Amino acid sequence: MSTAANTLVFTWGNPSRGDDALGYLFHDELIRANFDDVDVLTDFQLQIEHCTDLENRKRVIFVDADMTIDNTYSIEQISPDSTMAITSHAMSPQALMHVCTQVNQSTLPECWLLRIRGYTFELGHPLSEGAKRNLNQALSATKRLIKNKIPKED
Amino acid sequence: MSNLETAKHPENLKRIAIEPLTRVEGHGKVTLLQDENNQIQQARLHIAEFRGFEKFIQGRPYWELPVLVQRLCGICPVSHHLAAAKATDILVNATISPTAEKVRRLMHYGQTLQSHALHFFHLCSPDLLFGYDDEVRHRNIVGVIEDHPEIAKQGVMLRKYGQEVIRITSGKRVHGTGAIPGGVNKSLSREDINYLKKDIGQIVEWAQAAVELIKNIINQQPEYHKTFATINSNMLSLVDANGGLEIYDGSLRANAPDGETIFDQVNVLDYEQYIVEGIKNWSYMKFPFIKSIGPDDGWYRVGPLARVNNCDFISTPLAEAERTKFRSFNQDKPVQSVLAYHWARLIELLFCTESIQLLLDDPDISGNDLVNKGDLQAKGIGVIEAPRGTLFHHYEINEDGLVEKANLIVSTTNNNQAMNESIRQVAVDYLNGNELSEPLLNQVEVAIRAYDPCLSCATHAMGKMPLEVELLNASGEIVDRLHKHSDGHCS
């Protein structure tokens, strides 16, 4: 296994369910950008074993579609939260962070949550026009964040 | 079939809805009708079924199917991947090579391992370890991690190991392309094998510990585990040619509630002669049943409970020893308790770890004979034992290789009637005469959760997972409401 990059961008979503593809497409775009010292991973859902992906990182950016925010996207720093209980197979990033504090050996990285506004999530639907616009704006903002704030080696 | 399926005079009854169900995948709803004495008169499980599946698939070229169908479900993409690959093997008229079959088996054991680990440790152990009336904020995986860190860590690592097996056999974490029509597109390198062999001994040990854990839990309350939501049902599964446990290939076997054979060694290509998909006017989801018995008594269960009950033996020694103990729980008769799903699931988890260990020592796993093909056929059927139960993929293509007909019977559909029967049993045993409360309603969810249903829908955008329970009077007015938020607290 290769050494973990200092920054991890972790996206999730189902590419065949309309705007749920936002996380997956975000992943592909960032792979193309080919940033140094940045790993980009994706999965269908955020799951408990992903705590192992957070080990030995300095910064993690979680990325998911969201149908509750008012803006095109929102980004905020997040903290572990044991009260963000899991009600399905999927976990919240805050709950995953809490699991990391219990399971991982390394210090918990600085974690950010990027939520991109989506509108339709039906099987077989393409990405909506609104989500396409939101994706591009969120990508630009994230690329700036990565370029300007990649943590340096100690 | 229970008489609680349809109330005689629903217009006079209070309606309670549990929606959506928690710690199951996707969106489902339970509706209960109570009379003025709080006696349950009707109980139904509603699932928003995979209505778009066939439309999503029709018109697509057959060679896309193994990759395309992974997108149907974010929980069991590998099951759909392999079932579709098996169907396309028939479409290309291929007998796959030993290397292709073993790489696919490895992938399947990896996915069953990770799925069963997630279900037990993540979704069900909170109920089993803390009790069904534990404080809801604590009754989740975070609570398990805080109170039982070693158990929780083992659950995480078992799950992770299974995911690594999938990644290596399918090429990547998501949307892997490992299985293709007629075979696989890669075998394992020496580096891959060494990487997986490094931890497999520990993984087998943890799987054994998981089986011990569930046995200890059951031994603390054996009568409860025998009787909770217990129903007597037929059971359907694949078995191998000798009657052994089989989750990748094999033939169909159906046994009656007393263990007597209904049919055995049925070629999966003939499944339509034995299984009928019934419909009911109150549900979008179909209700499959055994044709020779009929809809009233021909419904059946699939999944770990059916598989471990139906098989005559398990080919790996540790799992076989546990199967023997499992069967002795009911004097060598089929174990019908719904909570025994957990026990059977962990026996299968152990079987998968042993099977992975064996395959990693098999030279075929790194062979070069990857793909076979013949003349294109019009119809292909692939059947696999997904973690949740028997999964049927049936495709018919035109001369251009485009899909004209697709029919999928997924595991959760196979268990539809059985889940309905289980919640009716809970309603009779626990809800009758009682006022609404979260711990009480959790009993309904516990019964459903034991089946590990995948209620479809990998859509999981944040903010979509509350639990709403409403109590309405005969006029349809809300007289009480319980809301469980996505962070777990109730208001």
Summarize the structure.
The complex is a heterodimer of chains A (154) and B (491). Chain A is of the alpha/beta class.
Description:
The complex is a heterodimer of chains A (154) and B (491). Chain A has 154 residues and is α/β, with parallel strands linked by helices. Chain A has 3 helices and 5 strands. Chain A has helices at residues 22-33, 93-103, 129-149, and strands spanning 7-12, 38-43, 59-66, 73-78, 110-117. In chain A, strands 2-1-3-5-4 form a 5-stranded mixed sheet. In chain A, helix 1 (22-33) crosses helix 3 (129-149). Chain A is globular, with a radius of gyration of 15 Å. The two termini of chain A are 22 Å apart. The mean pLDDT of chain A is 86. Chain B is built from 14 helices and 18 strands. Chain B has helices spanning 53-57, 65-68, 77-91, 98-130, 141-147, 149-170, 190-220, 222-227, 304-310, 317-328, 340-360, 411-414, 416-431, 438-450; strands at residues 14-19, 25-26, 28-34, 40-47, 179-180, 183-184, 234-239, 251-255, 261-266, 275-278, 287-290, 300-301, 379-386, 389-397, 403-409, 454-455, 467-472, 478-484. In chain B, the strands form 6 sheets. In chain B, strands 4-3-1-17-18 form a 5-stranded antiparallel sheet, covered by helices on one side. In chain B, strands 9-8-7-12 form a 4-stranded mixed sheet. Mean pLDDT of chain B is 86; it is low at 456-469 and 484-489. At the A-B interface, strand 2, strand 3 and helix 2 of A face strand 2, helix 1, helix 4, helix 5 and helix 6 of B.
Tell me the layout of helices and strands:
The complex is a heterodimer of chains A (154) and B (491).
Chain A: E1 7-12, H1 22-33, E2 38-43, E3 59-66, E4 73-78, H2 93-103, E5 110-117, H3 129-149
Parallel strand pairs in A: 1-2, 1-3, 3-5
Antiparallel strand pairs in A: 4-5
Helix pairs in contact in A: 1-3
Chain B: E1 14-19, E2 25-26, E3 28-34, E4 40-47, H1 53-57, H2 65-68, H3 77-91, H4 98-130, H5 141-147, H6 149-170, E5 179-180, E6 183-184, H7 190-220, H8 222-227, E7 234-239, E8 251-255, E9 261-266, E10 275-278, E11 287-290, E12 300-301, H9 304-310, H10 317-328, H11 340-360, E13 379-386, E14 389-397, E15 403-409, H12 411-414, H13 416-431, H14 438-450, E16 454-455, E17 467-472, E18 478-484
Parallel strand pairs in B: 2-16, 7-12
Antiparallel strand pairs in B: 1-3, 1-17, 3-4, 5-6, 7-8, 8-9, 10-11, 13-14, 14-15, 17-18
